[in-house]
Structure of Acetylglutamate kinase:
Amino acid sequence: MSIDLSNAQNIARVLTEALPYIRRFAGKTIVVKYGGNAMKDDTMINSFARDIVLMKLVGMNPVVVHGGGPQIGAHLEKLGKKSEFIQGMRVTDEETMDVVEMMLGGLVNKAVVAALNQQGGRAVGLTGKDGGLLRARKMLLDGHQDIGQVGEIDKIDPRVVAHLEAGGFIPVIAPVGYGEQGEAYNINADVAAGKLAAVLQAEKIIFLTNAPGVLDKQNNILTGLTVTQVEGLIADGTIYGGMVPKVRYALDAVNSGVKSAHIIDGRIEHSVLLELFTDRGIGTLIHG
Ligand SMILES: Nc1ncnc2c1ncn2[C@@H]1O[C@H](COP(=O)(O)OP(=O)(O)O)[C@@H](O)[C@H]1O
Ligand SMILES: CC(=O)N[C@@H](CCC(=O)OP(=O)(O)O)C(=O)O
């Protein structure tokens, strides 16, 4: 049997080019927020899963926090309920909270876990209730507006994540928190990912979404953004809806010690590896 030498050399070249990045990130925690919009079909989920398993196999510690907004919306629709969002947060009554917990903690979480395990990873799915990971309290928008069972993070106990990392598992976290009375809270996945990255003092946080990055009004990618720019772009309506919590909590993470935050297109094949293994990265980099 003959070997295609030039193809093998290409593979070897690519692998050696990745070496400095592998060395730089080995042993480091990298939080990956996997948005519901970037997991709309099996091809997307499998490409994501391969990237995460590869990260783990070369010695990084990926921690996945996933969303599932569109999946929750589709199920609510089946029940005849409309989704309503204010400042990127789902208005969450009791019935909606049940659907959120079922979808995030159940179907979506297990689909991500299964895809990672299918690619040879050892993933363990959790909600914020498990191991006391995410304690939440009611979030009041602008300090006063009540939008139901939406939670902001009160306290994070990261011990269960540390145990899983130490055991070689990939933690896959659904952003459902618990309150003082054990009640469930719907936490926006961007908020949960940003706050968890800060507590873990992660090297990086990567938000995978369905846009090429943060776009300006002419649809150009804004490759780098600072705090003042972000607030200006929210104020003039360039950044709206689901992108608002993403940029706010990316900034919050960077201001809390996470080395870098990136918002990238999760629909591109191997987007996580492209971000990790190239100097310029892809998408938008958020600075402190
Ligand atoms: N300036 C912007 N650049 C890119 N996307 C934006 C911007 N402002 C708002 N968006 C919207 O934010 C969406 C991503 O947020 P969201 O729907 O919550 O996704 P995810 O499921 O990834 O969290 C984009 O699909 C786009 O419609
Ligand atoms: C309070 C709030 O908005 N919670 C979100 C949680 C899921 C999420 O954030 O999903 P994506 O990352 O796919 O948008 C929701 O109910 O849709």
User: Anything to note?
Assistant: The CA atoms of residues 76 and 95 lie 9 Å apart. The pocket of N-acetyl-L-glutamyl 5-phosphate (ligand 2) is lined by residues 35-37, 67-69, 72, 89-90, 100, 150, 175, 186, 188-189, 242 (CB under 6 Å). The radius of gyration is 19 Å. The domain at 26-286 is CATH 3.40.1160.10 (Carbamate kinase).
